[in-house]
């Protein structure tokens, strides 16, 4: 099977078979059905999306022996002659090779003669923008007063270069580039008809590489069929054929970045470079994967064509983390030009992603508790220190935190938690806010890490029963929720409370008075920041310095001092 055979065999033979250009097909079919034909059409669009194919179908519709029809018979001599490219009244001209005015004159001299065999002479002038100024003038005269037996079809990839006088005498159609899905579906259809097996992801890659051009896609498919020696068309072979073997290391690289495993990440980049990958393509593919993962996390609960099982073993980070990585990758790609060499640029971009990836400590665990007011407004939280001690601690130094909490055994904590729970069950509705605050303390005692911890910190308690607990998850974190994380939380809560409980998590918007533990942490953080600044401003020594040097305090940052 040669390329020409495959391309010819699968070239659309009627408007109904045409892929992706429905708007053009519909307009032309309507015009043909009503016999309201314009004498000149201009088709604009990138290469390989069906301009010549449309011209041929149009010529068949006009000249089919069955009459002027919207759907040609494809059986008569005329239709067959046009399909095989040997019809006298379809004159195909490549303007790129005939730019001179003499060529155009010669062509147009013949316009006046009646068609040799059919009803209409159809002139297809491809890449019409390549004509010279004089050629356009010669063409314009014919377009102004065309003989009734002539139809012009002009095709171009660059309509900006065509004079307005020509444009205004044509019906203009913008052909669109085909989507990857349209192309891969068409390739799949062809392979099914040819009784060949394939991997869907291999076709997806071919479609991506064809960049919207069906002709390029068919040519690549042809190449793939012979490369795979008529066996199953699989992703690995197609990657190899396209020089994209490095893609096999892409998912491991994503994993290494997500896990902040620097050694693995660097080794994988090395491997990719060793097999001849270029840094920009790697970065490009990495960014595409981040986009796919973002889409997956949005459509997690919906069945979607975007779903791909190739990422099934990856733990998808939070949407904001994916955004951060994407932005770093995008900047890295832009800066490749300025890097000492592209390999260094790629390595530094990957390392930067790992360096800036928010780790569990920053995201998952609560921030320091400096503020004494916070404790005062939390009546049900475990009294860690006496207020007087707190005051002394904070007056001594703004940066010193509260003394370490008194040691208590897990059993005692569990008992306390149970007591709290019982207390809550009696007066749950009235003390919703308080219940949520001590919910924060319970979370502290759960041995959860990573995304599961973040997930639980984004929940408030909506029902606390003897054997069942209902949590309301902040709607923005919906994408993090899955069965396994819910089971982890249920087990941790059961262990903590010393009894089997059934956990239900539903999504809700958290507004107004009830804030999630994570929001509370952020509020505490802000409060601590404000308190720290106030303490600093009230310090006599600081005041002296400010007066002496006419200084101001711009930003206050503080750290928890662990004693
Ligand atoms: Zn026919």
UniProtKB/TrEMBL annotation:
Extract one GO BP annotation from the record.
DNA-templated DNA replication
Its Enzyme Commission number? 2.7.7.7
Cross-referenced SMART domains, in alphabetical order?
AAA
Coiled-coil intervals, chain numbering: none
Q: Where is the AAA+ ATPase domain?
A: 37-178
Query: Which of UniProt's keywords are assigned here?
Result: ATP-binding, DNA replication, DNA-directed DNA polymerase, Metal-binding, Nucleotide-binding, Nucleotidyltransferase, Transferase, Zinc
One GO cellular component term: DNA polymerase III complex
Q: Where is the composition biased (Low complexity)?
A: 408-420
Its catalytic activity? DNA(n) + a 2'-deoxyribonucleoside 5'-triphosphate = DNA(n+1) + diphosphate
Region described as Disordered: 365-425
Source organism's superkingdom? Bacteria
Family, as annotated: Belongs to the DnaX/STICHEL family.
Subunit structure of this chain's protein: DNA polymerase III contains a core (composed of alpha, epsilon and theta chains) that associates with a tau subunit. This core dimerizes to form the POLIII' complex. PolIII' associates with the gamma complex (composed of gamma, delta, delta', psi and chi chains) and with the beta chain to form the complete DNA polymerase III complex.
Per the entry, what this protein does is: DNA polymerase III is a complex, multichain enzyme responsible for most of the replicative synthesis in bacteria. This DNA polymerase also exhibits 3' to 5' exonuclease activity.
Protein name (database record): DNA polymerase III subunit gamma/tau
Q: Which gene is this protein's source?
A: dnaX_2
